[in-house]
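User: I've been trying to design a sequence by hand for this structure and keep getting stuck. Would you show me what you'd pick, starting by listing the structure so we're on the same page?

Assistant: Good idea, let's start from the same input. This is the structure you sent:
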């Protein structure tokens, strides 16, 4: 079974490598990083789809499905579980959704291993002088993807315990951000004005607040509190409704239960949803102000416009999601837009730390993985 699972992850990675090798970009290492980042973004979106369709336990064991590498081989077990609970967490469709999510995640793991190997190769070939190929960042990526895999396993074995699922989401977003940072290191960016130095603290604060909001959003989703406030902008017709923060924000507990084992009261779900909604006001204010400030700095304007556009889109999707009673497509898009904001804010933070002309203090190397060594561009 493990060999069959590994072959599926390898197949996903090979498809990504075909895109890399067929690209006209001479820097195949850079292309590999960006393709891996794009696949990670897709897996975050598909992970949201998995969670929102209640498919997280479509295969209630790990890493396989009832001890098999795919749902076809486990069809007898799935049918039996579905017959006992027709509306339960195990169905043929949910099993496929969960296993496809795992296959894609394994493919990312294989690609990150490739990034690590290639980074070490070029770094050593350069006599350890090419800092952009320093293996410390790829090694950190490898560590993170291993931790992420462990939390993916615990998500299933601990039966969707909310804190585990939320951390799983945060680690996925962190992996996306780290891949964005590694990819940014492989590119010579346009001139960034020295005023970008003044944006370092605001950009970092914006990223921290966004991470906290994503954690709150994950807590809403994993506790199924999305419809706890079904009206907008009020909640149950009040600005401050009746809420139970103690039970709502007890972190270590089973899904739908209090720490004492009782069913989670509805007021706790209201507290979870209301907190996410109110904290969004602070996030919008800080992100909007940071992006607006970045608009006046050469070299940051394109990224700042992207942040503002994504922020407006996220606000519209968030309001529409509540107003339209949480349609699946909008809920998935809400997660995807959050991932897009992570990507853009990481890029903004990176650019704010390189206030120098394009190429200054950067190695002018073009890397082609089809060649045996790095070739230096004398231009």
């Amino acid at each position: 079974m493990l060999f069959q699972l590994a072959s599926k992850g390898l197949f996903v990675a090979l498809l990504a490598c075909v895109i890399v090798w067929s690209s006209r970009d001479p820097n195949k290492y850079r292309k590999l990083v960006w393709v891996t980042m794009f696949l990670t973004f897709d897996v975050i979106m598909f992970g949201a789809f998995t969670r929102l369709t209640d498919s997280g336990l479509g295969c209630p064991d790990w890493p396989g499905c009832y001890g098999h590498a795919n749902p076809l081989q486990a069809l007898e077990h799935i049918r039996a579980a579905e017959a006992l609970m027709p509306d339960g967490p195990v169905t043929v469709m949910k099993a496929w959704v969960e296993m496809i999510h795992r296959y894609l995640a394994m493919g990312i793991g294989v690609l990150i291993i490739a990034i690590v190997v290639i980074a070490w190769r070029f770094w050593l070939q350069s006599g350890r002088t090419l800092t952009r190929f320093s293996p410390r960042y790829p090694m950190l990526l490898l560590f993170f993807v291993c931790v992420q895999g462990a939390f993916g396993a615990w998500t299933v074995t601990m039966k969707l315990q909310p804190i585990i699922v939320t951390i799983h989401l945060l680690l996925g977003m962190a992996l996306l951000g780290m891949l964005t940072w590694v990819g940014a290191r492989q590119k010579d960016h346009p001139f960034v004005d020295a005023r970008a130095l003044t944006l370092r603290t605001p950009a970092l604060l914006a990223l921290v607040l966004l991470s906290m909001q994503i954690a709150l959003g994950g807590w809403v989703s994993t506790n199924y509190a999305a419809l706890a406030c079904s009206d907008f902008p009020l909640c149950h017709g009040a600005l401050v409704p009746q809420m139970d923060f103690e039970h709502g924000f007890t972190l270590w507990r089973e899904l739908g239960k209090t720490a004492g084992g009782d069913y989670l009261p509805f007021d706790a779900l209201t507290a979870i949803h209301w907190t996410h909604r109110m904290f969004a006001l602070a996030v919008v204010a800080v992100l909007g102000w940071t992006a607006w400030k970045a608009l006046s700095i050469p070299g940051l304007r394109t990224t700042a416009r992207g942040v503002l556009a994504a922020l407006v889109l996220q606000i519209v999707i968030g309001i529409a999601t509540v107003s339209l009673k949480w349609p699946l497509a909008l809920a998935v898009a809400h997660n995807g837009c959050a991932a897009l904001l992570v990507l853009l804010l990481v890029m903004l933070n990176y650019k704010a730390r390189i206030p120098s002309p394009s190429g200054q203090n950067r190695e002018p190397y073009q890397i082609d993985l089809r060649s045996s060594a790095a070739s230096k561009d004398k231009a």
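That's my pick for every position. To get oriented when you compare it with your attempt: The longest helix spans residues 92-125. The first strand starts at residue 365 and ends at 366.
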